[in-house]
Design brief:
This protein has about 200 residues and is of the alpha+beta class. Helices cover about 35% and strands about 15% of the residues. Helix 5 links the parallel strand 1 and strand 2.
Length: about 200
């Protein structure tokens, strides 16, 4: 609302979409589109449907036979990956690790991947994630990218063991966090160059 106000745009209505209301809101959006209204979906940080809701909304619009027009927008994972020092191709983006159920299985699968893995993590759980990775692959290279494109942008690089020690010796991290874990092929330039497109 504040952003639209700055540009003098007065929409007929604004609807908040959250994890708990996306299914119901999708129906409202589909109905509005069927009536010929224009609808824009944006998030207050990053790209919709990546770390924010949006998947069910987009799928509902497509299933209704209506058009979805994407526009490029900010997303932290690509800048974080390119500046991490990890091989960029191929890579797998896995989003957030599950909080509880399935977390161990998820992390076991992550550390078995040959390619670089990019994931998001909350500042409240980043120390726990690094501890869990330390148990599985203490010498693997990792990069924590924090607050990409913002005032306090920071990259913390090293082995999982080293990064664990760094985090223990400093105040807790804040802000948006991306974790880039080298795959089992590590820094093999042959592996990286063979996967360039």
């Amino acid at each position: 609302g504040r952003l639209l106000e700055l540009y003098g745009i007065r929409p007929s209505r604004l609807i908040a979409i959250h994890d708990h209301n996306e299914r119901g809101t999708a129906g409202i959006v589909v109905d509005a589109l069927r009536e010929g209204q224009a609808v824009a979906y944006c998030s207050d940080a990053g790209s919709p449907a990546i770390s924010d809701p949006g998947f069910f909304l987009v799928r509902s619009v497509i299933d209704a036979g209506l058009t979805v027009i994407p526009l490029p927008g900010a997303t932290a994972l690509i800048p974080a990956l390119t500046a991490s020092g990890a091989p960029c191709m191929p890579f797998t983006f896995v989003g957030f690790a599950p909080h509880k159920k399935g977390r161990m299985t998820f992390l076991d699968a992550v550390v078995r991947k040959e390619e670089t893995v990019v994931m998001y993590e909350s500042p409240f759980r980043i120390a726990k994630l690094i501890d869990e990775l330390h148990v599985r692959c203490p010498e693997r290279s990792v990069c924590i990218a924090r607050e990409i494109s913002k005032v306090f942008e920071e990259f913390i690089r090293g082995s999982v063991r080293h990064v664990k020690d760094l985090l223990a010796a400093r105040p807790p991290l804040k802000g948006e966090i991306i974790v880039i874990l080298h795959g089992t092929r590590g820094d093999d330039p042959e592996f990286d160059s063979n996967h360039e497109s």
